[in-house]
Amino acid sequence: MIYLRSFKLSSFTDRNPNIYPDYVFKHMAGEVLLFDQITVLYGNNGSGKSTLLNVIANKLGVTGSERMPSYGHSDSAQRFLNLSSYQLGYDDREREIKQLPEGSRYMKSEDILYEIKKIQQSTMLRDGILYEEINKGMSKAQAAQYEHSYEFKKKLENIQFSQEKYSNGETSMQFFEEYLLPGQLYLLDEPETSLTPANQIKLAEQINELARYFDSQFIIATHSPFVLGTLNARIYDLDRTPLQTAEWFELDNVHFFHQFFNKHKRLFE
């Protein structure tokens, strides 16, 4: 299922070269990204892939989007969002989708790290659980009531048990197993955080299955060669000008890994 069909970046670029986020996207101003069931935003550090993912999340208004900073220019980020646009997709009967699924979400690498920290540091457990519920839409008054419930106590005990049972990587996998559900649009920022190569591939295979069989759509920012090589995805290379798609084996980061292991090939023979 294609919930989000396309996204057009603002074509306006401020004459001031330091205006955010204009300067991040000046090399792709006015570009249109066409989305598949799985679409990857690839780029090295500083390419703007995470910023672009957050721009899309803000424009769509999905859960988890972060307010964009303006760095002293209060209207620049909002102007960029106003001048950007998107088109939703079509359902199985070729009817235009009017709104995104309610569970659609933007997940940052920081969310995953926060989940790990929440589990590993018992002093953060209570605040962490309440923060999670408020982030999902619970009011502060409801959160205060929830804190005294049996459900809250049970969840707290389960997380404390997990503290001894799971490593960082296992916690990350558990996080995705809990939150990646059928029939949703997910924007994932570097989901490979804390995962071994084997688990990165396992997660990518899970994403492939959700997209192919369970009507989920993914837009993912990553530079992991293991994720890139496993996903059945359309890949946009943000390091290229003009913006264009590429095969995973053409990407610079993948070539770097290939050259590194080739250099030490004799050690594996």
Task: Characterize the structure shown.
31% of the residues are buried. Helix 8 (197-213) links the parallel strand 6 and strand 7 (217-221). Helices cover 42% and strands 13% of the residues. The protein has 269 residues and is α/β, with parallel strands linked by helices. It has a six-stranded mixed beta sheet, sandwiched between helices. The chain has a single domain, classed as 3-Layer(aba) Sandwich (Rossmann fold), CATH 3.40.50. Helix 3 (109-120) packs across helix 7 (168-179). This is ATPase. Pfam families: AAA_21. One of its GO terms (molecular function) is ATP binding. It comes from Paenibacillus herberti. InterPro entries: AAA+_ATPase, ATPase_AAA_core, Bact_Antivir_Def_Nuclease, P-loop_NTPase.
Q: What is this structure's SSE topology?
A:
Elements: E1 4-8, E2 32-34, E3 38-42, H1 49-60, H2 76-83, E4 85-88, E5 105-107, H3 109-120, H4 125-135, H5 140-146, H6 150-165, H7 168-179, E6 185-189, H8 197-213, E7 217-221, H9 225-230, E8 234-237, E9 244-245, H10 252-263
Parallel strand pairs: 3-7, 3-8, 5-6, 6-7
Antiparallel strand pairs: 1-2, 1-4, 8-9
Brief account:
With 269 residues, the protein is of the alpha/beta class.
| CATH architect. name | 3-Layer(aba) Sandwich
Radius of gyration: 20 Å
Mean pLDDT score, rounded?
A: 85
Question: How many discrete domains?
Answer: 1
SSE topology string: EEEHHEEHHHHHEHEHEEH
The biggest beta sheet, please? 6 strands, mixed
Protein name: ATPase
Organism: Paenibacillus herberti
Pfam family, one: AAA_21
GO molecular function: ATP binding; ATP hydrolysis activity
